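Please review this one:
***
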Amino acid sequence: MKKLIAAIACFTTINVFAQNNYWQQHVNYKINVTLNDQSNSLKGWEELQYTNNSPDQLSFIWFHLWENAYKNDSTAFSKQLLRDKKGQDRLAKFKDRGFIDSLDFTVDGVKATLEYDPQNIDVAKLILPKPLQPGGTIKIQTPFYIDIPQYISRSGHDGQSYMICQWYPKPAVYDRKGWHHFPYLDMGEFYSEYGNFDVNITLPSQYIVGATGVLQNADELNQYKKMGASNVASGSKKNSIRYIASSAATKTLNYKAENVLDFAWFADKDFVVRYDTLQLANKTIDVFTYAHPDGNKNWIQSTDYVKSGARAYSGYFGDYPYPVVQAVEGPKSENSGGMEYPMITLITSPDASEQMLDAVITHEVGHNWLMGILATNEREHGWMDEGINTYYQFRYEAEKYRFNSIFGDQIPKEVKQKSAPEFQALVYNALTRIPMETPIDTPSEDFQSDDEYGIVVYVKTAIWMYYLEQGLGKENFDKIMKDYYEQWKFKHPYPEDMKAVFQKDAGKDMTPYFDLLNKKGNL
């Protein structure tokens, strides 16, 4: 008995040590920003509280200055677009560039030096006046100015419609594998630290705004809810209740968000607001969508799509943890159906059918779990975000519609009459015939084209996930994925962390499955 107790004690100690050995940095933000819609610019001020939870002393902090990626043809973003004809054509039409400047960093009130990466003007190293010790917290402050680019890749303006994403000076992630201070790419996403945001947005009073977090201005929020609920009830394509702007020239909206990776906001004078609520097991979630009166007619059903997607993913992983979930209709994108941010997503699919719009919104809402809660390094291991999410998107489409967004209207009627599992089997059998040469676990910057990136990171990974489901049995697979979610939510898991959960829960060596992530050619 003593040996058994000693063994249990040893095992418990090892487990506790392993849990305590994990660490991640924490960054809290206070941001004040003003939009000038005449010059298409932002003037801002930022205060960060950066906590060093690592065991290492830090003498500098890498920062992302994403808006500089659009500045000229020498950036990593521009060079990536220039690789192929489609990208060259996009860049040729890009007249209103953009940049971030007027930075003047202080650390705990002491002026600090900013050293730009000689290869990438959208990456810079902040040299700390004195080293930041393990467990220490510093206050970093800086003003900034942004010339908002024409919308071409995620962030920008389309006339006086604004998609403000990747916009503020942002610390790069420092984790157990070191710094991840990569430049902005069109094809390849992000990796961010968790923190809380307190953001004040000042802009002309006529604008309607959707943003990460909860709007703290009660009068404005109540207007959105009243107008949005009326639009949902009436099925109106336009705002059935007129938005009443403040008599003042400008207004300041305050948003707060807790335990998120990023903050994005969207502003337009003509947004059609829709509002509903989603009831989950233990709470009620606010659901907002923002669309254009001349946009995709299927946005009339957009709150239903957001609710349906959020409900499905809550079942796949665990209940949605935030107080609000939102979707915004943006301008047509030449290479994307949407882009996800915490609590809000940008959808750029103006021609989508009902089923396709539902699929796109659900995919992007699903990123609240796969990116927002399981916060992987998307640049190095894009499959852990986009690919796993695509598997669940395909599952959602099959269960709800017997539809698959890759094949669209090409699916024969007799296939649509199958059960969901039979439908999925036929779809995946067809997908496996698509040529897929590049290994799944390939860094984003190593893909040579959007088509290759999409087929491999999204579809090939979905096939791999389906193999896991079939090999382990759906019920067992679902339990393991939920366990992975519970163990790693609000953390930064790597492929080896996911594999460890599967190995433990499946009770067998999962190496043959995970080796497929590095396999060239079709699986």
User: Anything to note?
Assistant: The domain at 24-193 is CATH 2.60.40 (Immunoglobulin-like). The two ends are 49 Å apart (CA to CA). The mean pLDDT is 94.
